[in-house]
Design a protein that fits this description.
Amidase signature (AS) enzymes, 13 helices, single chain, alpha/beta
Length: 408
């Protein structure tokens, strides 16, 4: 779908947080009417806007790719629903990180924790919402790139059911797991965006059983579990039928390895030729992941894909309509900016991915809610459910946020 870029009164983004792209800035006026009229949003710089180059978190990508001729379907849906686009937002290099630190563009400010990272790869979108520069913002989530920034910045953030929100006009990354998600501070705005992007409901069952994912909670420190207890209690008041559930058979470490291989193989398949030809400078962590992806053999990839299918079949047999899974979004609060790479990769990324891969491998919708704080830093809790239960989860999140507000 074509949507010409029209500059509005916002000739440059209001950007005290370093959240917005400047080299390829664009702002678009929405239809002026609809369920999102009067709201402003931002979009991660992997969504195409007609006539405006896409940066994908790297200046060499911006330089070496022509401007797209079509605007991403999700963006046109939001514009048609009345929302105004304020600008494009920064992301991690090639969207292959969870920190939000980009050696080329810097680190957007996390207003809830200024000395700490905002999380990635949808870092600019999260920072812009947390800083109230926009009402909501769009990102992508393959490995956790909406859920982690939501937890680190104290936001509502959703990874929808895989395939439910259009990725037409979005740079591909790991298509087996890629989704378009969004952030908001206000639960009603959060839900309204979902009603625009998700399309007709596909699941009739309302939340009936709360299943606490005990193998996920076993991965986090006692302080994290204790910080989330009050929110779990509140969920129990909304869904009294509550039980513990070992979703993986204590195999989340193995699940992560499967996810890592399938994701990396697809990233290299999509972008390996460009990386080999252009030889872009890549920052710590991203550089090593790309190099490892290039070494994966067909047999290793085939084995991982077969195991992925088994995991998905296992979960399909375990989840019932009306089930709501509860798990930590992240094993920790946001790390300090400039933390050592080995600490980030082992203590943060690998542990986080063992939680995040649950929804990714199984295509499940997952919402992170701002549930608690540890030493003043935000910490999220997640609700997930069977594929297609997105709208039910959004409504539950709204009810839970209202309950949390009334008790504070």
């Amino acid at each position: 779908m074509t949507h010409a870029a029209r500059t509005t009164a916002w000739t440059a983004p209001n950007d005290p947080l370093g959240a917005f792209c400047h080299a390829n800035h664009v702002s678009l006026q929405g239809s002026g009417s609809g369920p999102l009229a009067g709201l402003a949003f931002a979009v991660k710089d992997c969504f195409h806007i007609a006539g405006v180059p896409t940066g994908f978190g790297h200046p060499e990508w911006l330089r070496s790719h022509p401007a797209p001729t079509n605007t991403a379907r999700a963006v046109t849906q939001l514009l048609a629903a009345g929302a105004d686009l304020r600008g494009k937002t920064h992301c991690d290099e090639l969207c292959y990180s969870l920190t939000g630190e980009n050696i080329h563009y810097g680190t957007p400010v996390n207003v809830r924790a200024p000395d700490h990272v905002p999380g990635g790869s949808s870092n600019g979108s999260a920072a812009a919402v947390a800083g109230r520069l926009v009402d909501f913002a769009i990102g992508t989530d393959c490995g956790g790139s909406v859920r982690i920034p939501a937890s680190y910045c104290g936001l509502l953030g959703i990874r929808p059911t895989h395939g439910r929100v259009s990725l037409e006009g979005v740079v591909p990354f790991g298509p087996s797991f890629d989704v378009a998600g969004w952030f908001a501070l206000d639960a009603e705005v959060f839900e309204a965006v979902g009603k625009v992007l998700l399309g007709p409901d596909s699941v009739a069952a309302q939340p009936q059983r709360l299943r606490i994912v005990k193998d996920a909670f076993a991965l986090v420190e006692t302080a994290v579990r204790q910080a989330l207890v009050l929110t779990i209690d509140g969920l129990g008041r909304l869904i009294p039928d509550t039980s513990e559930f070992d979703i993986s058979g204590s195999a989340l470490a193995e699940w992560f390895e499967v996810f890592k291989i399938v994701q990396a193989s697809e990233v290299w398949g999509n972008h390996g030729d460009w990386i080999t030809t252009v030889r872009p400078e890549l920052g710590p962590g991203v550089k090593e992941r790309i190099a490892w992806a290039s070494t994966l053999t067909p047999s290793v990839i085939a084995d991982a894909k077969a195991r992925h299918a088994e995991i998905r079949a296992h979960i399909d047999g375990q989840l019932l309509p009306g089930d709501v899974l509860c798990l930590p979004t992240s094993p920790r609060v946001a790390p300090l900016i400039g933390s050592p790479v080995d600490k980030i990769e082992v203590e943060y990324r690998e542990q986080a991915m063992r939680l995040l891969c649950i929804a990714g491998l199984n295509g499940l919708p997952q919402i992170s809610l701002p549930a608690a704080q540890i030493d003043g830093l935000p910490l999220g809790i997640s609700l997930a459910g069977p594929r297609g239960s997105d709208l039910q989860l959004l409504a539950l999140a709204r009810r839970l946020m209202a309950q949390m507000t009334s008790t504070t």
